[in-house]
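Researcher: Next entry in the queue.
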Amino acid sequence: MDKEHSVFKLAMKPGLYAGLISVAVSIVLWATIADLDIRSKLGYLTLLIIAFLFYKFTIDYRENTMNGELSYGEGFKFQLSMSVVYAAINSIYSYILFTILDPNMIEQIKEMAAQQMYDNNMSDEQVEAALQIQSLFMTPTFMTVSTLFGTFIMGLVLALIISIFTKKEKKIFE
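Model: Structure for this entry, 174 residues:
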């Protein structure tokens, strides 16, 4: 248990860095690009940056803390711990974005969704019904909670994949 605690403690700093870098990229996109659709597509840039950071931080952890050896499970635990911190920071930013920085963003998202439904040849009644259901979930609190879970799930998937490339087992015949 103490070793697991130390893994989380060691992962807090890189998770904080990943979260702050993600927030910085999001703020730059938010401040410079008015079109929400383009901004959301460029958000994939953040995913690539975070994947690179998870890889880099795990390699640093392996080389500097684990004496150059890291099992798949140890790498996964480290990255999952980073994901917890990263998700918490992103959800806090999400709440600030939807309540303070850009409270109109939720309305913009609803309008974009309605336009996409019309583009898919949905009738006015279908669009109206879908928007009524959607409005139940389009609140700052719900968006924050979904950001927390969505970001954590994304971190989980990244950890599963990146751990394959960061593992370095002990050599048996040395």
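Model: Residues 108 and 139 are 13 Å apart (CA to CA).
Researcher: Noted, moving on.
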